[in-house]
Write a structure and sequence with these properties.
The protein is an alpha+beta fold. It is about 15% helix and about 15% strand. A five-stranded antiparallel beta sheet has the order 1-2-3-5-4, covered by helices on one side. The longest helix has 17 residues. The structure holds guanosine-5'-monophosphate and zinc ion. The site of zinc ion has 6 residues, from α1.
Length: about 140
Protein backbone atom coordinates (compact mmCIF):
# COMPACT_ATOMS: atom_id res chain seq x y z
CA UNK A 1 0.00 0.00 0.00
CA UNK A 2 1.34 3.41 -1.00
CA UNK A 3 1.51 6.23 1.51
CA UNK A 4 -1.47 8.01 0.00
CA UNK A 5 -3.69 4.94 -0.26
CA UNK A 6 -5.51 5.18 3.05
CA UNK A 7 -9.21 4.67 3.41
CA UNK A 8 -11.78 7.35 4.09
CA UNK A 9 -12.53 10.64 2.37
CA UNK A 10 -10.44 13.78 2.68
CA UNK A 11 -12.07 15.32 5.66
CA UNK A 12 -12.27 15.27 9.42
CA UNK A 13 -9.96 12.71 11.00
CA UNK A 14 -10.06 13.39 14.70
CA UNK A 15 -9.14 15.97 17.28
CA UNK A 16 -10.28 19.41 18.28
CA UNK A 17 -8.52 21.51 15.62
CA UNK A 18 -11.77 22.68 14.04
CA UNK A 19 -12.95 23.98 17.41
CA UNK A 20 -10.00 26.35 17.92
CA UNK A 21 -11.25 29.93 17.46
CA UNK A 22 -8.05 31.95 17.92
CA UNK A 23 -5.43 32.35 15.25
CA UNK A 24 -2.90 32.25 18.10
CA UNK A 25 -3.76 28.59 18.57
CA UNK A 26 -4.38 27.78 14.92
CA UNK A 27 -2.18 24.97 13.62
CA UNK A 28 -1.67 26.51 10.19
CA UNK A 29 -0.94 29.95 11.69
CA UNK A 30 1.75 28.22 13.76
CA UNK A 31 3.15 26.60 10.62
CA UNK A 32 3.05 30.00 8.88
CA UNK A 33 5.02 31.47 11.81
CA UNK A 34 7.49 28.56 11.62
CA UNK A 35 6.57 27.50 15.14
CA UNK A 36 5.67 24.01 13.90
CA UNK A 37 7.82 22.31 11.26
CA UNK A 38 6.50 21.53 7.82
CA UNK A 39 8.00 20.45 4.52
CA UNK A 40 7.69 23.86 2.90
CA UNK A 41 7.83 24.08 -0.89
CA UNK A 42 6.94 27.75 -1.32
CA UNK A 43 6.98 30.84 0.86
CA UNK A 44 6.46 34.50 0.09
CA UNK A 45 5.11 37.48 2.01
CA UNK A 46 1.50 36.35 1.68
CA UNK A 47 1.40 32.58 1.22
CA UNK A 48 2.93 29.33 2.32
CA UNK A 49 2.74 25.90 0.65
CA UNK A 50 3.85 22.67 2.27
CA UNK A 51 3.38 18.92 2.02
CA UNK A 52 0.27 17.47 3.65
CA UNK A 53 1.31 15.27 6.58
CA UNK A 54 -1.09 12.51 5.44
CA UNK A 55 -0.91 12.54 1.64
CA UNK A 56 -3.87 11.24 -0.36
CA UNK A 57 -2.11 11.34 -3.75
CA UNK A 58 1.49 11.16 -5.02
CA UNK A 59 1.55 14.98 -4.80
CA UNK A 60 -0.45 16.42 -1.92
CA UNK A 61 0.37 19.99 -0.96
CA UNK A 62 -1.47 22.56 1.14
CA UNK A 63 -1.49 26.22 0.12
CA UNK A 64 -2.46 28.74 2.79
CA UNK A 65 -2.58 32.49 3.23
CA UNK A 66 -0.22 33.52 6.02
CA UNK A 67 -2.91 35.62 7.67
CA UNK A 68 -5.71 33.82 9.44
CA UNK A 69 -8.88 33.30 7.42
CA UNK A 70 -11.07 30.49 8.72
CA UNK A 71 -12.51 29.30 5.41
CA UNK A 72 -13.88 30.31 2.02
CA UNK A 73 -17.11 31.13 3.84
CA UNK A 74 -15.28 34.06 5.45
CA UNK A 75 -14.18 35.65 2.19
CA UNK A 76 -15.57 39.13 1.55
CA UNK A 77 -15.37 41.84 -1.12
CA UNK A 78 -12.02 43.10 0.21
CA UNK A 79 -10.39 39.70 -0.24
CA UNK A 80 -10.56 39.51 -4.02
CA UNK A 81 -7.01 40.62 -4.82
CA UNK A 82 -5.08 38.26 -2.56
CA UNK A 83 -7.47 35.40 -3.30
CA UNK A 84 -6.79 35.72 -7.02
CA UNK A 85 -3.06 35.79 -6.29
CA UNK A 86 -3.51 32.61 -4.26
CA UNK A 87 -5.46 30.93 -7.06
CA UNK A 88 -2.82 31.89 -9.61
CA UNK A 89 -0.10 30.53 -7.37
CA UNK A 90 -1.72 27.09 -7.20
CA UNK A 91 -0.75 25.86 -10.71
CA UNK A 92 2.71 27.35 -10.36
CA UNK A 93 3.30 25.40 -7.16
CA UNK A 94 1.61 22.26 -8.49
CA UNK A 95 3.77 22.00 -11.61
CA UNK A 96 6.95 22.93 -9.75
CA UNK A 97 6.41 20.10 -7.27
CA UNK A 98 5.63 16.98 -9.21
CA UNK A 99 2.27 17.44 -10.89
CA UNK A 100 2.62 16.31 -14.47
CA UNK A 101 2.33 18.81 -17.33
CA UNK A 102 -0.90 19.59 -19.11
CA UNK A 103 -2.91 18.28 -20.78
CA UNK A 104 -2.15 14.70 -19.75
CA UNK A 105 -1.24 15.72 -16.21
CA UNK A 106 -2.86 18.46 -14.20
CA UNK A 107 -3.94 18.67 -10.59
CA UNK A 108 -6.98 18.88 -8.36
CA UNK A 109 -7.66 21.93 -6.17
CA UNK A 110 -9.88 21.29 -3.14
CA UNK A 111 -11.05 23.69 -0.45
CA UNK A 112 -13.04 21.78 2.15
CA UNK A 113 -15.32 24.32 3.79
CA UNK A 114 -17.11 23.81 7.10
CA UNK A 115 -17.87 20.62 8.97
CA UNK A 116 -20.12 19.14 6.32
CA UNK A 117 -17.56 20.16 3.70
CA UNK A 118 -15.03 18.01 5.52
CA UNK A 119 -12.88 20.85 6.85
CA UNK A 120 -10.68 19.74 9.71
CA UNK A 121 -8.36 22.74 10.10
CA UNK A 122 -10.12 26.09 10.39
CA UNK A 123 -7.57 28.08 8.43
CA UNK A 124 -8.31 28.46 4.72
CA UNK A 125 -6.26 26.03 2.67
CA UNK A 126 -6.23 24.65 -0.83
CA UNK A 127 -5.35 21.00 -1.22
CA UNK A 128 -3.23 20.62 -4.37
CA UNK A 129 -3.43 16.98 -5.43
CA UNK A 130 -1.71 15.42 -8.39
CA UNK A 131 0.53 12.76 -9.81
CA UNK A 132 -0.03 9.46 -11.47
CA UNK A 133 -3.30 7.69 -10.72
CA UNK A 134 -4.82 5.78 -9.00
CA UNK A 135 -5.14 8.03 -5.96
CA UNK A 136 -6.62 7.28 -2.59
CA UNK A 137 -10.41 7.22 -2.44
CA UNK A 138 -10.04 10.14 -0.02
CA UNK A 139 -8.77 12.29 -2.88
CA UNK A 140 -10.80 10.93 -5.75
CA UNK A 141 -14.04 9.41 -4.46
CA UNK A 142 -15.87 10.16 -7.70
CA UNK A 143 -13.04 10.49 -10.20
P1 LIG B 1 -9.01 19.63 5.79
O1 LIG B 1 -9.65 18.33 6.21
O2 LIG B 1 -9.13 20.69 6.85
O3 LIG B 1 -9.47 20.10 4.44
O4 LIG B 1 -7.48 19.31 5.59
C1 LIG B 1 -6.53 19.41 6.60
C2 LIG B 1 -5.31 18.71 6.11
O5 LIG B 1 -4.24 19.08 6.95
C3 LIG B 1 -5.40 17.18 6.14
O6 LIG B 1 -5.21 16.66 4.83
C4 LIG B 1 -4.29 16.77 7.09
O7 LIG B 1 -3.60 15.61 6.66
C5 LIG B 1 -3.38 17.98 7.10
N1 LIG B 1 -2.67 18.18 8.36
C6 LIG B 1 -3.18 18.07 9.61
N2 LIG B 1 -2.24 18.36 10.52
C7 LIG B 1 -1.10 18.66 9.82
C8 LIG B 1 0.22 19.04 10.23
O8 LIG B 1 0.53 19.19 11.40
N3 LIG B 1 1.12 19.26 9.23
C9 LIG B 1 0.79 19.12 7.91
N4 LIG B 1 1.77 19.34 7.03
N5 LIG B 1 -0.45 18.77 7.50
C10 LIG B 1 -1.39 18.55 8.45
ZN1 LIG C 1 -4.81 30.31 11.25
Amino acid sequence: MKMWQHTGLIGPMSGPASQIPMSHDCLFCKIARHEIPARIVHEDDEFLAFHDINPAAPVHLLLIPKHHVASLADIGPADGDWLVRMLRLAPEIAFANGCNPMPAGGFRLVANTGAEGGQEIDHLHFHILGGERPWSNRAAPAA
